[in-house]
Amino acid sequence: MAVNYYKLPIQARDLMTNASSKMVSLEESIINYLHLIMTTRFGECQSDASFGCALWDVDFNNMGSNHKLRAVIADSLTKSLKRYEKRLSQIEINVNIEQDEMDGRATVSRVKKMVLVHVIGVINKTNENFTYKAHFYIAPLSY
């Protein structure tokens, strides 16, 4: 039995016009869902307030060290992935925090924290290794 996976975000106009939605592979579907979990703040999903991760809760938190920040993000993301992404097993998450100097349009450069996330696991259905890397900028005044 073939299983279809929809590309995120789902286009509302396709649903309203009965057009066919874009389909993706199992691996890309998992990647889309991981990205959705990482970019969702706790409480943002009205039907399930625990969906998301703490990455956005610590955005402007001035924790004393990057080690604490890394631990909070890794712990939150591990719990969320184990709860919501059942297609993966043996999940390992590595989080690194780096300072990144961004050239602004003005003569002043800005330094931001860049959170690098590396997710490793096994796809249950195919027993294949899975890896995903993403990065996000957080505080100060990340936009």
Automatic annotation (TrEMBL):
<feature type="coiled-coil region">
    <location>
        <begin position="74"/>
        <end position="101"/>
    </location>
</feature>
<feature type="domain" description="IraD/Gp25-like">
    <location>
        <begin position="25"/>
        <end position="126"/>
    </location>
</feature>
<keyword id="KW-0175">Coiled coil</keyword>
<dbReference type="Pfam" id="PF04965">
    <property type="entry name" value="GPW_gp25"/>
</dbReference>
<protein>
    <recommendedName>
        <fullName>IraD/Gp25-like domain-containing protein</fullName>
    </recommendedName>
</protein>
<dbReference type="InterPro" id="IPR007048">
    <property type="entry name" value="IraD/Gp25-like"/>
</dbReference>
